[in-house]
Structures are given as structure tokens and as C-alpha cells.
TrEMBL record:
Organism for this UniProt entry: Marinomonas balearica
Subcellular location: Cell membrane
Annotated protein name in UniProt: Putative spermidine/putrescine transport system permease protein
GO biological process terms held by the UniProt record: transmembrane transport
Record membrane topology: Multi-pass membrane protein
InterPro entries from the UniProt entry: MetI-like, MetI-like_sf
Similarity field: Belongs to the binding-protein-dependent transport system permease family. CysTW subfamily.
Any one cellular-component term (Gene Ontology): plasma membrane
CDD domains attached to this UniProt entry: TM_PBP2
Keywords: Cell membrane, Membrane, Transmembrane, Transmembrane helix, Transport
Domain of life of the organism encoding this protein: Bacteria
Pfam family, one: BPD_transp_1
Length: 284
């Protein structure tokens, strides 16, 4: 009986296993193999060389791109966390009506009804030299000339990331906060705890699983994104994914494959560090 149950469990897991092997593991293996190939201006040469990785790991351009990527990831995480935590806290603890919570939560998802590219492009008429922000500041007398750093800059890129990915931080944190026993908060208030003490000793520790899940979403999405940097950076800013995109555009597939493998390893190392900080499976 026990053996038949185990065999039945294996049969249940087989479809998902085949899908993961075919659409995740196999493509990664192909990319890994191609990363060791040679290439020239017009063809790929099956081989086993390390020049792609040597150039990648010793290039100052790669180092600068990774530093830029980590900067974008950290700043995006910081601001999405601050905004997401505040919004989730307000919805979970200050909005008493469940109907109102649902309505406000759905309002937060309205921007997701359009594509990421449209939401990014919508910032251009606002932040451009002749855009609404610069025009308003000039007409009010606060500035004499347009602010060039509002668009096609690091500020614009991070702003777009915040706009795109804040909800990925709000949802898991809100889910964690809704599972906090309200009697703990009431007991802390009765014991004379200040609001900031309740936040520090109860809310944040019990929400750390949601914070970690949201952090994983934001970090992985920013690390692998190139279209935001390409549009909001105006082609003068670059991150690691942009370098990979440029190599693919030049048909340098082995170099792009090597860059993708190194980026994948980097993201996996970041995830390992995050998982060591909090056991997400245990917390959930």
C-alpha cells in the first residue's frame, strides 16, 4: 500500500517535472553550452573556449554595469519597501472595513491593467524638458531653466522601477500583516507600549516573511530588466541586462549566453543570502 502511494505521488509530480525540465532546465543547459562556443561576424562555431567568460569577468565595462545594476536594485528595493510597507500597514491596521480594504487594494492594481512599456512612456511627457513638471516649476518661479536630470537619468530609471514594482512589495507584506493576531497589538497597547515599539517589536518581525518575498520579487525583476533602462535612460545608461541585449542585437550569442549565466549565478547567490536571513517556507 505504501509503495503504491509513493508511485501515485510520483505520477502526480511527473507532468510538472517534465514542464520544468523542458521549459526551464533544458534552455538553461543550452545557454550554458553556447556560452563556451566561439563566434565571428557571421556564424557560431561550436567549441569549448573560456574567452567569453575571461573577457566578461575582466572587463571594466562589465564591472561598471554590475555596479549600476546593484545600485538600481538597491534603490528600487529601498523605496518600494518604504512605500509598500507604509501602504500595507495602512490597509491592514487603519482601514477597518473589509469592503473598503478590498476597494482600496483593487485601486492599487489599476496601473497593472496596462503594459509596463505604456506606464513607462507615460512619464516622458511629465519629466521631459518641456514636460508638465518642468513647465509647472518654471511658471511658479521655483526654477529658471528646465531640470535635465528628471528624464533620461538614474532618477528616471529608479522612479520607473518604483512605479512598476511597488505592488510586488505591497501584496506579500499586506498578506503577512493580515495574519497578525490583533490581540497582540491590543495587549501591547494595554501594557503601555508606544506605537513605534509595537511597530518594531511586533509588526515588523511578524511581517518579515512578506518583506522577504517582496524583496525577492523586486531584486530579481530589477536585476533582469533591460527595457526600463533602455527607455528611461534614453540609451545613455546601461545595466547588465542591457549589455546582454546589445550582444544579442550584434549576433554575439556566445558572449550574451556567458553574460546570462553570470547574471543567473549572481541572482541565485543573492537569493541564497536572502533565504539564509529568513526561512520563507517556515514563516509561510
Amino acid at each position: 500500500m505504501m509503495l503504491s502511494r509513493q508511485i501515485h505521488s510520483y505520477w502526480q509530480a511527473l507532468p510538472l517535472t517534465l514542464i520544468l525540465l523542458g521549459f526551464l532546465v533544458f534552455p538553461i543547459c543550452v545557454i550554458l553550452v553556447v556560452s563556451f562556443w566561439d563566434y565571428n561576424e557571421y556564424s557560431l562555431i561550436p567549441d569549448f573556449i573560456l574567452e567569453n567568460y575571461e573577457f566578461l569577468l575582466t572587463s571594466k565595462v562589465t564591472l561598471k554595469a554590475y555596479l549600476q545594476t546593484f545600485k538600481y536594485a538597491f534603490l528600487s528595493w529601498l523605496f518600494t519597501f518604504l512605500i509598500g510597507f507604509t501602504l500595507a500597514y495602512f490597509l491592514a491596521f487603519h482601514v477597518r472595513s473589509q469592503k473598503t480594504q478590498t476597494v482600496l487594494f483593487l485601486l492599487c492594481t489599476v496601473p497593472f491593467f496596462t503594459s509596463n512599456i505604456i506606464r513607462m512612456i507615460s512619464w516622458i511627457p511629465l519629466l521631459g524638458r518641456n514636460g508638465l513638471v518642468n513647465s509647472s516649476l518654471q511658471s511658479s518661479g521655483l526654477i529658471d531653466q528646465p531640470l535635465d536630470w528628471l528624464l533620461y537619468s538614474d532618477f528616471a530609471i529608479v522612479l520607473a522601477y518604483i512605479h512598476l514594482y511597488t505592488m510586488f512589495m505591497v501584496v506579500p507584506i499586506f498578506n503577512s500583516m493580515m495574519r497578525i493576531d490583533r490581540n497582540l497589538v491590543e495587549a501591547a497597547l494595554d501594557a503601555g507600549a508606544a506605537p513605534w515599539q509595537i511597530l518594531k517589536d511586533i509588526i515588523v518581525p511578524l511581517s518579515k516573511s512578506g518583506i522577504m518575498v517582496g524583496s525577492i520579487f523586486v531584486f530579481t525583476l530589477v536585476m533582469g530588466d533591460f527595457i526600463t533602462v533602455k527607455i528611461m535612460g534614453g540609451g545613455i545608461k546601461a545595466n547588465v541586462a542591457t549589455l546582454i541585449y546589445n550582444e544579442i542585437s550584434l549576433l554575439q550569442y556566445p558572449a550574451a549566453a556567458a553574460g546570462a549565466i553570470v547574471l543567473l549565478i549572481t541572482v541565485l547567490m543573492m537569493l541564497m543570502i536572502l533565504f539564509r536571513l529568513v526561512d520563507v517556507r517556515k514563516e509561510l
